[in-house]
Design brief:
By secondary structure, the protein is an alpha/beta fold. The protein is built from 5 helices and 8 strands; from the N terminus they run E-H-E-E-E-E-H-E-E-E-H-H-H.
Length: about 160
């Protein structure tokens, strides 16, 4: 896989390859590319350790960097995955949260490596884009959720 002109670089302590493989198994249009090993010792590792991993998450090119424990992920960066129905929403949510992840409010969760994800049903995005009272009802319903409930959002849209 050639490195794209613009690639998201995600810093991991030491598990970039495991994270990339999890994402590739979980999301369609995802894969693991080249795994590059350190040519020499560096502050948080030694020669031969996995240094970087090229991977794709839902069509987005990424590079995982095993940079050590000095930097951690935070909610300021997240992947937003649009889902078509409750089954797809549940599948991604359960994969992330059920693999030592953490559930957060309003459709957000974090994977075991601390990367934030928004598992967002299209019905919610469409309701907010519609504006007016429909958007207000859907947004209000969402504020009380962790994982998004598609049926509840649809009901809120209808009033």
């Amino acid at each position: 896989m050639a490195i794209a002109k613009n690639t998201i670089c995600l810093w991991y302590d030491k598990d970039a390859e495991a994270a990339a493989r999890f994402y590739a198994e979980t999301f369609p249009d995802s894969s693991v590319g080249a795994v590059h090993r350190a040519p020499t010792h560096y502050p948080s590792g030694k020669a031969g350790d996995v240094l970087t991993v090229e991977f794709t998450v839902a069509g987005i090119p990424c590079l995982g960097l095993n940079g050590g424990p000095a930097v951690t992920h935070n909610i300021a960066f997240s992947f937003q995955i649009a889902t078509d129905d409750q089954e797809e929403t549940d599948r991604y949510w359960n994969a992330i949260v059920g693999n030592c992840g953490q559930a957060n409010a309003c459709g957000w969760c974090q994977d075991r490596w601390g990367v934030s994800w928004q598992i967002t049903p299209r019905v919610l995005t469409e309701a907010i884009a519609a504006g007016g009272e429909e958007a207000k009802r859907a947004f209000t319903a969402m504020m009380d959720m962790t994982k998004i409930d598609v049926a509840a959002i649809e009901a809120a849209r209808r009033g």
